[in-house]
Amino acid sequence: MQYVVITYLCLGILLYFLLGGADFGAGIIEMFTSSKNRSKTRKTMYQAIGPVWEANHMWLIIAIVILFVGFPHIYTTMSVYLHIPLLIMLIGIIARGTAFVFRHYDAIKDDMQWLYNRIFRYSSFITPLFLGIIAGSVISGHIDTQATDFLSAYVYSWLNWFSIAVGLFTVALCGFLAAIYLIGETNDAHDKRRFIKKAEFMNVAAVVFGAMVFIAAQRDGIPLIDWVFKNTIGLSAIILASLSLILLWYLLIKGKTKVLRLLAGFQVTMILLAISYAHFPNFIRLKSGNAISLVEAIGPEKTIYSLGLALLLGSILILPFLGYLFYKFQKKEE
User: Where are the transmembrane segments (predicted)?
Assistant: First the structure.
């Protein structure tokens, strides 16, 4: 049952990045849209994420619950030594959701719309930035559980070049996902061209920040190159990600947009696989050179059995209805 729980944890993290990341990316796309086109972008975005945006946070909740119940040592380490970026990320989620609701459903359209719009855009950028910073910190080896001062324990664990580079890379990927998803949400030729340009911009940004991640990893002594290029799975995943990107742009040029979302999701999945496979099941790398493993840090057998059973039963009850929700709201209006 422990592998069932671990599988659900990995899937929860992946789906939150793909679905929640695309939602954050919509705000990032709006941030980099000219003022004259923002209203049209906002309308397309509401059509794409409006009905289901809150459901995407389910995956984050599932991942947190799994860590809290099934891997308390990992949960404790992250919540203690990464509490600052975690708090900023959670504030960003709350601020973004609040602004999204008020700017769309507020009964009175007044000057507060100016504030709601900016809160939504900035929090859409800040949240994935710190999500990436947290992810980078977990694998960077900067977390020092033996630190004796505040900065070493709670600041330098995440405020470093590698974590920041991963954060910026995450922002670019979220923007890329959102741009690709939004292309299929409009039938207007002008809007399609705008979103294609945004996808190109975010694609270039992802390449630049991806290079920064490798440079920062080399500077900080993180064996990222070995993880990605010196094992069969990692290298294969990078090759598949590159090929899927080429196919994505080929289909986009041909005007075939139906499978673009699947290709973009597949590409990001392969990138995450390439980075994480080599050091799995280690979840947190510590400054001491040790690592906290998902297998070794797992909770008591009875707890894991109950958690795994709850996840399986929950999937049977929830996933069909969630799929139906996405299906209904993705249908185009006549």
Answer: 6-32, 53-74, 80-102, 122-141, 161-183, 195-217, 232-252, 259-280, 304-327
